[in-house]
C-alpha cells in the first residue's frame, strides 16, 4: 500500500501520488487525503508507476468526483499508462475526469 499526498499552500490543489497498486489497500489513505477534508478547488491523481487497478479504485474516483462538485469537479488523472487509460474509458470515467 502506498499513497502520498501533496497540498499547495492554500489547499486549493491536492495531488495524490499512488504507488504500484491502486486498489482497496489505499482506501483509508485516499479517504483521509481527499474525502475527510473540505473540498479543494482541484485534484490531481498521479498514477506514475501504477501497474494494477481494481474496481474499488474506480469507486474511489467516483466518490472523489461527488465530493469535488460532481459535474463541476476539476479532477485530472496524470501519468496513467495505456492500459489504465483504456480501463477509465471502458468504465465511462474518461468523460467524467480529465485524462492526461
Index terms:
five-stranded mixed beta sheet; alpha/beta; Transcription Regulator spoIIAA; 100 residues; 3 helices
Protein architecture, described:
This protein is of the alpha/beta class. It has one domain (3-99): STAS domain (Transcription Regulator spoIIAA, 2-Layer Sandwich), CATH 3.30.750.24. It contains three helices and seven strands. It has helices at residues 27-35, 55-67, 82-90; strands at residues 3-7, 13-18, 21-22, 42-46, 52-53, 75-78, 98-99. The strands form two sheets. The protein has a five-stranded mixed beta sheet, with helices on one face. α1 (27-35) runs parallel beside α2. It is globular, with a radius of gyration of 12 Å. The chain starts with a strand and ends with a strand.
Task: Provide the fold topology.
Layout: E1 3-7, E2 13-18, E3 21-22, H1 27-35, E4 42-46, E5 52-53, H2 55-67, E6 75-78, H3 82-90, E7 98-99
Parallel strand pairs: 2-4, 3-5, 4-6, 6-7
Antiparallel strand pairs: 1-2
Helix pairs in contact: 1-2
